[in-house]
Amino acid sequence: MDHDLLVTLKALSDASRLRIVGLLAARPAAVEELAENLALAPGTVVHHLKRLSAAGLVESRPRRPYVEYALKVDRLHQVGRMLDQMERGSEQEAHLPGPSGEPLPAFEAKVLRSFFEGGRLVSIPAHEKKRLVVLEYLRDRCFSEDQVYAEKQVNECLALYHADVASLRRYMVDAGLMTRNAGKYRRPTLSVPMPG
Amino acid sequence: MDHDLLVTLKALSDASRLRIVGLLAARPAAVEELAENLALAPGTVVHHLKRLSAAGLVESRPRRPYVEYALKVDRLHQVGRMLDQMERGSEQEAHLPGPSGEPLPAFEAKVLRSFFEGGRLVSIPAHEKKRLVVLEYLRDRCFSEDQVYAEKQVNECLALYHADVASLRRYMVDAGLMTRNAGKYRRPTLSVPMPG
DNA sequence: GCGGTGATTTGACAGTCATCAAATCAGGAA
DNA sequence: TTCCTGATTTGATGACTGTCAAATCACCGC
Q1: Nearest CA in chain B to A22
Q2: Which contacts of A85-92 are long-range, i.e. CB under 8 A and separated by 24 or more positions?
Q3: Same domain, B103 and B166
Q4: What is the CATH number of the domain that holds A15?
Q5: Contact A28, B25 (CB under 8 A)
Q6: B101 and B174 share a domain?
Q7: Does residue A152 approach strand D to less than 7 Å at its CB?
Q8: Does A76 sit within 8 Å of B80, measured CB to CB?
Q9: Residues of B with CB below 8 A from A73's CB?
């Protein structure tokens, strides 16, 4: 979620891409059309469109013999709203809501309240049971299922909550909350820790 | 205006700076405080704060013995609104409104209508009188007085309207609409072209 | 099947920039 | 004045990325 915002802002923070968004705001267009308007090579335009697409700002559809790229205005509005609410973000995080607002079990709520302050993790719990609560909470806030994360991305989101991202990463992997394969991280498909 | 949006988006499109914004959203803070939370060197934090400041997102105030940096929420909201309205941007430009909405003299209005299409300059007028109308219009939309622009910035804004930015730049300078000094561009302070 | 057109991918290059360590500055206290 | 603390500047380095030209792909009509 937070990570997506970053991706989207990065996508919008380039002159050429902003111009593309401006052009697509008027009407959908093909790659070559954009390339001509922007005085850029088609390959470059494709590169930009891919970034905008990864940010959910643009969608493509075959329109033989062209490919029609169109702006997804909803996403733009979403980003606008996110920025508007960013100032509230930290206050809300101070409430430490559960994944979908439902109340947390008492123990977990207590642990989270005592280890978080102003939306940030003040220290990593030494007791394994408490640590697990914190780690699981962070994992849910940072990573979605069925997505692969580079170590850099993992660090980026964890850093939102605590400076020592290396420890958090290691603990998560050790606890089986995240799996690491060839430098890539992901949530385990079905992690029911079975003893024996 | 458009240029400021780019600067601001660039400022927001970095993980560290987003985290800074998040921290400052909770409460104002000093450089070292931020540096510790982010696990970054103080110098690096200052660098980021300078960028955020240039984007108008942050302001600083001496708070001996510290320097207090605070978020300017208004600016954040402004950006959010700009993104919301970006989709309307091109439509509005299609109307080619004057600098502050007042009606343009008939001749200028006619020239602009015939040389612009969908908010873009379709070709540079060959006739000097018409060209001047177009150039002046573009200058007003791109550059404010009392500000110095690098050539790159000049190109960025002009490119929003026409691919051949080099010609536009040259014509503007030749016509005295912009002055160039040591690679830097600016609007002439008082440009009353006096013959002789 | 074969060309042709438009889209995409690839490899290389250049410019930008985040980051750090270390040097420097600024102002209060001793 | 001379320290001390915190902020800022500087220079260097490494990573990222926007850009292009050229190669490749995908699909259509012949």
Answers
A1: B90
A2: A86/B21, A86/B22, A86/B25, A86/B76, A87/B25, A87/B71, A87/B73, A87/B76, A88/B25, A89/A119, A89/B22, A89/B25, A90/A118, A90/A119, A90/B22, A90/B23, A90/B25, A90/B26, A91/B26
A3: yes
A4: 1.10.10.10
A5: no
A6: yes
A7: yes
A8: no
A9: 87
Domain assignment of residue B193, yes or no:
no
Q: Is residue A55 part of a domain?
A: yes
Q: Which of B139, B160, B156 is nearest to B89 (CA)?
A: B160
Give domain status of residue A83, yes or no.
no
Q: Range of B101's domain?
A: 95-186
Residues B33 and B69 in one domain: yes
- More confident call, A47 vs B150: A47
Per the CB < 8 Å rule, is B13 touching A9? yes
Q: Tally the domains of chain B.
A: 2
> Are residue B71 and residue B116 in the same domain, yes or no?
no
Residues of B in contact with A164 (CB under 8 A): 39
Residues A101 and A170 in one domain: yes
Question: Does B83 reside within a domain?
Answer: no
Per-residue pLDDT band for B92 (boundaries 50, 70, 90) equals: very low
pTM of the model: 0.65
* Nucleic chain C contacts, protein chain B, residues 62-121, CB cut-off 7 A: 64-65
How do the pLDDT tens digits run along chain A, 196 residues long? 566 889 999 999 999 999 999 889 888 888 988 898 888 999 999 999 999 999 999 999 888 778 889 999 888 888 888 887 776 654 434 444 444 333 445 677 788 888 887 667 878 888 888 889 899 888 887 777 766 777 766 776 677 677 777 788 888 888 888 888 777 788 887 544 444 3
pLDDT, tens digit (0-9, with 9 covering 90-100), for B157-181: 677 677 777 788 888 888 889 888 7
